[in-house]
Design goal:
The protein is mainly alpha-helical. Helices cover 53% and strands 7% of the residues. It contains 13 helices and five strands. It has helices spanning 19-29, 44-47, 54-70, 88-97, 102-106, 109-117, 124-138, 152-169, 214-222, 240-253, 257-263, 269-295, 298-327, and strands spanning 6-11, 37-42, 79-82, 144-146, 177-179. The strands form two sheets. It has a three-stranded parallel beta sheet with strand order 1-2-3. Strands 4-5 form a two-stranded parallel ribbon. The protein binds tryptophanyl-5'AMP. Residues 8-12, 20-21, 23-25, 43, 46, 133, 136-137, 145, 147-148, 150-151, 154, 185-187, 196-198 line the site of tryptophanyl-5'AMP.
């Protein structure tokens, strides 16, 4: 246990999780428990950088935890917890704010995108969000952070902050590496394949949720935007819609792009979209069924997140104490 490398990741409970979240992140988490010491959070503190409805936020978190477990994350083998239950995140987050530069934060793509979308609520938390994310990761001395492509910039900033801190105080933080899947790292919106599939753009019908019903999933794929050609061929630049569907099909079936192209060489887009829809339905079906069973079992969820917070706190507090000492805080 002691010598295992550490994995840490998190997802915002800012809405229902999407197929993109699943293929880019969650799907890969479930395979790691035997080899690594794994910490997976529900990042409620990050979620409040956008306005949330309190009752919804509570509900979303429990559904998210149930879905983590339904995706194969056994709470006995993985540390599953809620970020705000471990105060060290807020504590180290503040410290790291003081070691993160204004210019660095200004360059973050997620900040630029979110502030463009929510011009009426560009709060300080949204801006300093990456310093809290750095704290999330560095508290656990994580070796790898399994995320989708869009989070790479935040992990790189985390490394820069850690290097800066270590440069002043000695080796306090392990430098984490992003762990980005080869297939599924950037799933695009089915209606607007130039945009990332995202829970904040649910309304256009181009977003599939992990817990969506089979008929809704089939409908979304049937309507997916393609192009004016007829061949099922991977060409990200000229055929973004079809390329996205090939990527999704590949991630769900394990077939390579070449195998997929030859499987559909004599078939039309209609057949292909139906097959992709069916593959997604079958991938998500057992997760949806198990998640619904678990959502009904509140006691089990509560004991999982409590046990997770206890274990996470032990690890996180070790790092926090070390940091406080290094920077000159007096032990209470
Ligand atoms: P969030 O909540 O936006 O997304 C959660 C995870 O899902 C991945 N993802 C996708 N992957 C492929 N295609 C998509 N369309 C897609 N949409 C989302 C994201 O890359 C991410 O891995 N800042 C983080 C949450 C966070 C975190 C952390 C992550 C907070 N602290 C510490 C890792 C480590 C975020 O907003 O993810």
């Amino acid at each position: 246990m002691e010598n295992k490398k550490v994995i840490l990741s998190g997802i915002q409970p800012s809405g229902a999780m999407t197929l993109g979240t699943y293929l880019g992140a969650l799907k890969n988490w479930a395979t790691m428990a035997d080899e690594f010491d794994c910490y997976y959070m529900i990042v409620d503190m990050h979620a409040i950088t956008a306005r949330q409805i309190p009752a919804e936020l509570r509900k979303t978190q429990l559904t998210q935890l149930a879905t983590y477990i339904a995706c194969g994350l056994d709470p006995e083998k993985n540390t599953l917890f809620i970020q705000s239950h471990v105060p060290a995140h807020a504590q180290l987050g503040w410290v790291l704010n003081c070691y993160t530069m204004f210019g660095e934060l200004s360059r973050m793509t997620q900040f630029k995108e979110k502030s463009a979308r929510n011009a009426e609520n560009i709060n300080a938390g949204l801006f300093t969000y990456p310093a809290l994310q750095a704290a999330d990761i560095l508290l656990y001395q994580a070796d790898y952070v399994p995320v989708g492509d869009d989070q790479k910039q935040h992990i790189e900033l985390t490394r820069d902050i850690a290097v800066r801190f270590n440069g002043i105080y000695g080796d306090v933080f392990k430098l984490p590496e992003p762990y980005i899947p080869k297939i599924g790292a950037r799933i695009m919106d089915l209606q607007a394949p130039e945009n990332k599939m995202s829970k904040s753009a649910i309304d256009d019908g181009g977003c599939v949720l992990i817990l969506d019903k089979p008929e809704d999933i089939m409908r979304a794929f049937k309507r997916a935007v393609t192009d004016s050609e007829t061949s099922v061929r991977y060409d990200l630049k000229n055929k973004p819609g079809i390329s996205n569907l090939i990527q999704i099909y590949s991630a769900c079936t394990g077939n390579t792009f070449q195998e997929i192209e030859s499987e559909f060489s004599t078939k039309g887009y209609g057949d292909f979209k139906k097959s992709v829809g069916e593959a997604v339905v079958e991938t998500l079906r057992p997760i949806r069924e198990e998640a619904h069973r678990l959502i009904a079992d509140k006691a089990h969820l509560e004991s999982a997140y409590k046990q997770g917070a206890e274990k996470a706190s032990r690890t996180a507090n070790k790092t926090l104490r070390k940091v406080y000492k290094k920077i000159g805080f007096i032990e209470p």
